[in-house]
Amino acid sequence: MTNSIPARRADHPTVRKVRARKTAKPGVIDADWLRQVCLDAGVDDVAFASVDNPDLASEREHVEGALPGAASFISLVVKMNRDNVRSTARSVANQEFHRSGEIMNEAAHRITRALEDAGYRAINPSMSFPMEMDRFPGRIWVVAHKPVAVAAGLGVMGIHRNVIHPKFGNFILLGTVLVASPISEYGQPLDYSPCLECKLCVAACPVGAIKKDGEFDFLACSVHNYREFMGGFTDWVQTIADSEDAADFRSRVSDSENASMWQSLSFKANYKAAYCLAVCPAGEDVIEPYLDDRKGFMDLVLKPLQEKKETLYVLPNSVAKEHAERRFPHKQVKVVDSGIAGR
Hints:
Order of helices and strands: HHHEHEHHEHEEEHHHHHHHHEHE
Number of strands: 8
Radius of gyration: 24 Å
Mean pLDDT: 94
Helix content: 40-55%
Strand order of the largest sheet: 1-2-6-3
Distance between the termini: 58 Å
Number of helices: 16
Structural class: alpha+beta
Largest sheet: 4 strands, antiparallel
């Protein structure tokens, strides 16, 4: 028999105990049960998608590598506190991102444990960092949370390239659990986009990464917003290596920039902007102040970010540099390297 084991092991106490108990093999996961498990674990919304979904064909190879036999995606949403994200104090906004991320990872871990206890194979990739850095600068994530959430019906991508939840707006973080079993019911994509195309995200972006026509300059966004992540850190290290001595280095990098990099290295990496999220009025729970008083909403949410004095990081001779200098003359514009070879 293919499932036989050597006779000398058949009498092992563990083998005897397991063979003596009667357990049903896990089958299709009940969607209602799973949804309640997820909500009890601490997420604010959840939906499911099949690995066979044609809209997620690009994910199949990657999730199969992470969890052989993966059959379903469990897409998770955790709300963020809106005014924290909108704050001009970056420590407040970044703490909201980090704390919400911790809640997501903890919830995903609990869901995976519940599935495992019920007999299902499952894994919970990180909602953010750490990632597969041995693949950098290629695809460094296990699963792309955004397309999974869209396919499951938890939102639609706005022109700022963030998923907008119909109720919570874009003030959300996404996570995904992979499970090697089918689920009894999968979600369907929304039949409308919550995005209002109000273009406030266009007005808020300090480096012009979001275009009025819907185009998106990923490199402009990553060079500034992710200054203290991967590529920006590499550029910072290159600056150290290229400096003749300490005085030369300090003439290139301000004390404030060094302190901020230290903070990111010692605590968690800080985003420099995310203003596109901050000003977005979409979502049933979010839109009312914008509808009641559009100008008042802009004065309260948009203008403080536009008027904030800060350093903007751009590539040399880039559209982002021209935009930042023209649109935000009161902000310091600093030319840096992307930290990514060939870019």
